[in-house]
Structure formats: C-alpha cells, structure tokens
Amino acid sequence: MLKNITLGQFFPGESIIHRLDPRTKMIVVFSLVVLIFIFKSWIGYALMYGILILVILLSKINLKHILRGLKPLLFIIIFTFVLNLFFSKAGKVIFELGFLKITYEGIILAVSLSARLIFLIMITTLLTYTTSPIQLTDAIERLFKPLNKIKFPVHELAMMMTIAIRFIPTLIEETDKIMKAQMARGAEFDSKNILKRAVNMVPLLVPLFVSAFRRADELAFAMEARCYSGGHGRTKMKILKLHLIDYFALVFLGVLIATTFLGI
Amino acid sequence: MSITINNVSLTYSKGTPFETKAVDNVSLDIKQGEFLGIIGHTGSGKTTFIQMIAGLLKPDEGEISVNDKDINNKKYDRKELRKSVGVVFQYPEYQLFEETVFLDIAFAPKKAGLNEVEIKKAVIDTCELLEIDFEEIKDSSPFELSGGQKRKVAIAGVLAVDPDILILDEPVAGLDPHGRKSLMSLITKLNEKGKTIIMITHSMDDLAMYAKRVVVMKDGKIAHDSTPKEIFSMAEELLEMSLDIPEASKMVKSLNDKGKDVPKDIITIDQLYSYLIKRFAK
Amino acid sequence: MIMKNKQIYTENLKYSYIGDEQKISFALNGIDIEIKKGEFVAILGHNGSGKSTLAKLFNALYSPTDGDVYINNINTKEEEKLWDIRKSCGMVFQNPDNQLVATLVEEDVAFGPENLGIPAEEIRKRVDNALKTVGLKGFENKAPHMLSGGQKQRVAIAGILAMLPDIIVFDEPTAMLDPHGRKEVLNTIERLNKKQGKTIVYITHYIEETVHADKIIVLDHGKVITSGPPKEVFSKYELLKKAGLSVPRATRLYFMLKENGINIKQPTITNEDLVNELCQLL
C-alpha cells in the first residue's frame, strides 16, 4: 500500500537516459535550466523544447506520467501567466478591461516565463523519474567531493540523505500505525478548526519523534558495530563511471553552451 | 454487544499495479463474551480485518454491525464505537505520548466525554486491574518506565473506557515467559468478566489454552472457523499454510507418525500428560 | 592468564549505570564467562537480567565499568584495537529495521566492507557470497522495506558475514519475528555454526531456541546462576523458574511424568527426544 511510494517517483527502466551516469544527468539538467533562463530568442526556446522532447522519447516514459508532474504546480504556472499578462507595466496596450491592461510585451513575458517554468518542472521530473534516489545521492556525493578540502561534510550529508530515503517508507508505515492506535482511543485527525487540528497532532507527533530518536540510537549502534567511522578511508562497491553515452551527452552540452554564448 | 460482519471486502491501492484484495468477502458473527483467536499467515488479511471491525478502516463492500447498527452509516455515532471497542495494537507502548502516566491513561476517557471525577476513577480502577502501582508512577513520564511497565500503561490506556469488546493484535509479542503468562491471565480474567476478546496471535499454545474459538484466515478469506481442538487437530493443513501448531500437537503428530495412535484433539501439555498417565495405567 | 582456545572470556565483568533517583545500578555484577572457538553458546535470561548489556560488551560498543572482556585475546578496553575486535566479532540486533542503512539489499550488505576500506571487486565477491549463505541470492536489488521480518534479519546477518567475522553475537534476533521468520533465522544461524564453524553467542529468553546449543549460560540480576550443556541446565527446573524462565515443554512433561512414576530413561529437552522415549514405553 503506502509501502510502494518512492521519493520523487522513480520508474525503473533500461533506456539510454536511465543508463546515463547520474552526474551527467544532473550537470545537463542544471545547465539546460540555466540556459533557458538566459535565452531571449524564440529559436532558443524551440531548441530547448526540442531537446526536451528528444529526452522524453529516449527515456521511454509515458507522456501521461510526465504531464502528471505538472499538476501540483499548475497553480503557480497559471498564476505567473496571469500576473505577467495583466500587470506588466511597459508596452503598447492592446486590450483594456477596467484596470486590467494587456500589452504586447505583457503577452510575450507571460508566455516566456510560463514556458521556462514548464520546462524546468518537466526536465527535473524527468531527472527523478529516470534516476533512483540512491543514484542521485551518489552523484551529489561525487560532485561535491572537492568541498571536502574546505571541511564541508560531503560524505556525512550524503549518508544522511541515504538513510532518510531508506526510512521514508518505514516511517510512513509507522505513522499509519500510530494514527490508527490513537484513533482507536478516540483521537480525531480531521477537525475543521486549524488550531484544534494542530493540538490533535500531538498524539501522533510525539510518539513519532520518540520512535525516530530510538531508531537513530539503534541504527547508530548497528553502524558502529560494522566499523562505521565517517567518510575517511571508506571505499564503495559501486563506483560511478562515465561511459561513451555520457561523454557524448557532455560534448553535446558543451557545443550547446558554446553556441549560446557565441550567439548572444 | 454482538458483532455481525456481512460479506465484507477491502482492496488496497485500487487502480495501481500494486492492487491487492486484503479481505475477500468475509462474513462472521461474534457474540458477546466470546474468546476468539484469529490466525493466518502474514498477509492473510488479519490486521486489515480487525481494523475494519474497530471502525478504523472502511470496507469497500459489505456491512459491519455492532448491536445491529451499521458502524459505517453516516448517522452512526463514532464515539459510541470508541467506548465499546478497545484495540491493543502490536507493541502498544509505541503509542504513549503524554507528559505523565495519568494523562496518558486518561486520554481515551477524556475523548469519550467523561468528567474529571469519572476520569480519575477510571484511571485508578484500570491501574488496579493491571497491577500498576498508581501512586508511585502516576506523575512519572511514560517514557521513563521499563518495557514491561510501558506495555501495561499502554494497555491501561485502552481499557480505561471499559470497552465491552477488546481486540488485540499479538499482545504478547516481545514479552518474556513471565510477562506472557501475566498478560494472558489478565486477558482471560477480562473474558471471564464478560468481555468479548478477539485476538490475533502466532502463539498457538496460548490459543490452545485460553481461546474458545479459532478462525483461520488465508488469502483474505476465512478458511476455517471452529474450536481450538478441531483446528489444531488439522496439523498437516496448518503446517502447509506456514502456520505453527501447539507444542503438544507437535508431539502428538510425531507419536502418530510412529504409529502410536494418540487422539489428535490433545492440544495442551496438561491434556497430553493426563492422557499418557491414563494410558500407562492400563 | 591468556589461553589459546578461549575465543571469548570475561573476568569479573561489571557494568553499572546511574538509574532511578541517582542510584548506581549494576546491569552486570561480576561475570566470568568462557566461550571456545566454534561453540554455540546461548545466554538465557529474563528481560532485565543484563543479557543485552553483555552482548554490547562483547564487541566493545560498551566498555566495562570494572573487570575485563577479551575477544581473541584482545582486551576490549584497547581503543586502537576497536576495529579488530568488531571485525572479528559481529553483532546482529533485535530490531530488523533499525540495522539496515541502505536503500538496496546489496548496498546494505556492502556497508561493512566499505567501512573497512576493502577494494570494490572484493566487496562484490563478499556480498554475493554472504547473500548466498543466508539464502537471499536474487534479492540484491530489493528495497529493505519490501522484505519480511525474517528476510530483513537475514540481510542483517549477511551484512555481518561480509566482514568475515569468526564470532557472531545475536541479541534476541527473533524477538520481533513471526514463527516463519524465526525458523528462517534459526536455520541460518545453525548453518553458520555447523557448516562454517562460526562461534555463535545467542542471547534470548525463548528457551525452545536454545535446545541445540553446546552450552547455556543463565543470567539473573546481573550474575551467572548456572551454566552447562542444555540437558544439565534444564534439569534445574526450580532454579530456572526462580530466574523467571521456563523449561522446554518436553522437559516439563518429562518431569511431570517422572513424578508420577513413569520411568522415562533419559531426561528430554527436545520434542524428538521425548517422543523417542515415549515410543519405547508405549
């Protein structure tokens, strides 16, 4: 039931996109998002969306799922669009209705900002759909490794993320158990009054916190018993390695960035 | 308070690739004062089933009635259900949350609408029933108690509203032999007082000794519903379902496999002892 | 005095902590234990007898308040040798969930060797071997929360095996499992002892799980009250009862029948023993 929820919803698969090194994917996604916010011409947008469509096709993930990723943020997209459409200051007024002015520049701004937002959401959704949480944390750990030099605890943060991801389904199950136990004693979790609702959460939150601390304590013992002592001297069984497709993707990205800067 | 379960079903994760029918068209009648044990392999639907009886889960199909009133009817008063049906979940000590033992045990009575005098009486009476030293620990934090005490306090929290029906999910899990005996003796005492006991357990020896009726669940359905003697005499079938059988039944089965012809309805050590004494006397 | 074949031994081991009302409580109050290489030793005690504390003293998770613990002739107080001790003396805990740290089974089993700085290829070999030994080949890419309790515990055992220990301490590993999971784990442990010669220290309050041990050590209130092979220990019925423990049902029945004049030749501790003895008389 709730056991089957995965963070960011990862869809396992064997497509080219799935097989790319997670570092490559993260670098590409980051770069593309920056680029689309820099681009000013229609050609730029068309190019980015072209790349997006190509990636969607290569990933073999159903478009329906990708569009579903837009749903929770639909409100923000529409809000941005409407805000810029009606409330842009500058420009030639095309249409007027009371205090609402639609200008030509307003339309362009609304469309371009929305297009950027949609692109951002879809490309990052694609990232989490094609990359498992553990791959993402591994990638972050490798990419931020240089920060070790300034004593930034890269390994420890990655370890924390891994453990958090590992325990999310377990904690969800536990929340359900505690809720049912308290409901059986008469607790109500569906009050309409916000203040009441907050107070009613105490019988749920206190046991969860106590339990979380107990887990952490037991887990710490178990990790120590297996000789864990931080990142120093640790090796990894699975080492991220770049392959031909990664080099190809990175070269392509390099060319794209170069052309952008030459074009602008 | 009788419970009637009519053709009840529940499916999890409908419409997803993880869809599972946890409870499949189950019907059962439970009379006041029964001591009913529910056994079944992991995933057979036992926990889902008892949660439905307690009104914590709504069935997709079928009705559940307590005293002939459909508990899932919009007009049904949930508060009444909470007062009549108590549920002790597995490792109940994990539900403790209040600042003091008194407040934690008082939670259910408070939610049930009892006044301060009634609440205090309920807490004191329940502590006496569970052999908890009220004066000593009433102001302690529940988190400072020993494991065994925590469990007692948690159970007290459920019994404080004096429910007619008590549902327990593996109540003796994690307890040592002394703790087990103590708790089972309390549960038996409550049953003798007239409370209905519905107990999920893997401890077949406890059921052999205390239960009067055993229901076997398999793949969301009721596979068998009979007395402990009848159920545990079906040793092969239970073992095939990955279920355990009482220690005495194991010995009876071994003796019978060696052709010694011992009655299959012997399910406790005491019964086996009595039988052997009689047989040796001949 | 250091003896070569004693793999684990303790000398007047004491462990105290500050308990209620700032009083000093002794979890262990002068323990002298010897465990030989390859032995399967069970440590029995009711909850609160000090057995879990003893487990954590064996792999230096706790340090003695007084006295000494030697693992492979290394004193556990030697801080520089901590890793050596924990490498050779692995530990499996009671809660299956709170030992698994990674999101995939094979990554969790690799955790220990990774901490030891073992090269990637060697880790891969160890992980594959460990999973095969515990019967979980094919589970490499499963997520821990999708496994049953018994499977989770076996993953935890595999994680220890991948560190190539000679000793494995099990701290009530079956307490939170259903009978099926319990059997899985017990069978695995027996295999590790009989087929791979690992020294096993098995801590529990479930008497039936100790019948195949080479030696049983019984703790009560922080002291060893008796030790010896199972047949010897279980004959001390009254002593065990006082320590809050029971005897296996086969032993109890043996005593009951003996008292009634039935002449069973050998004291019995397992169902098989008793059935064989009874067959001779019936």
Task: Explain what the structure shows.
The complex is a heterotrimer of chains A (about 260), B (about 280) and C (about 280). Chain A is mainly alpha-helical and about 260 residues long. In chain A, helix 2 packs antiparallel against helix 6, helix 7 runs antiparallel to helix 8 and helix 8 packs across helix 10. Chain A has a two-stranded antiparallel sheet with strand order 1-2. Chain B is an alpha/beta fold and about 280 residues long. Chain B contains 12 helices and 10 strands. Chain B has a 6-stranded mixed sheet with strand order 6-7-8-3-9-10, sandwiched between helices. The radius of gyration of chain B is 21 Å and the shape is globular. The mean pLDDT of chain B is about 95. Chain C is globular, with a radius of gyration of 20 Å. Chain C has about 280 residues and is α/β, with parallel strands linked by helices. In chain C, strand 1 and strand 2 form a beta hairpin. Classes of the chains: A mainly alpha (about 260), B alpha/beta (about 280), C alpha/beta (about 280).
List the helices and strands and how they pair.
The complex is a heterotrimer of chains A (264), B (282) and C (282).
Chain A: H1 16-19, H2 22-38, H3 42-59, H4 63-68, H5 74-87, E1 93-97, E2 100-103, H6 104-130, H7 133-143, H8 154-184, H9 194-200, H10 202-225, H11 244-263
Antiparallel strand pairs in A: 1-2
Helix pairs in contact in A: 2-6, 2-11, 3-6, 5-6, 7-8, 8-10
Chain B: E1 3-12, E2 20-30, E3 35-40, H1 46-53, E4 61-66, E5 69-70, H2 78-84, E6 85-88, H3 101-111, H4 116-129, H5 134-137, H6 147-159, E7 165-169, H7 177-192, E8 196-200, H8 204-210, E9 213-218, E10 221-226, H9 228-232, H10 235-240, H11 247-257, H12 269-281
Parallel strand pairs in B: 3-8, 3-9, 6-7, 7-8
Antiparallel strand pairs in B: 1-2, 1-4, 4-5, 9-10
Chain C: E1 6-18, E2 24-31, E3 34-36, E4 40-44, H1 51-58, E5 66-71, E6 74-75, H2 82-88, E7 89-92, H3 105-115, H4 120-133, H5 149-161, E8 167-171, H6 179-194, E9 199-204, E10 215-220, E11 223-228, H7 230-234, H8 237-242, H9 249-259, H10 271-281
Parallel strand pairs in C: 4-9, 4-10, 7-8, 8-9
Antiparallel strand pairs in C: 1-2, 1-3, 1-5, 5-6, 10-11
Helix pairs in contact in C: 3-4, 3-5, 4-5, 5-6
Concise structural overview:
Chain A is mostly helical and 264 residues long. Chain A has 11 helices and 2 strands.
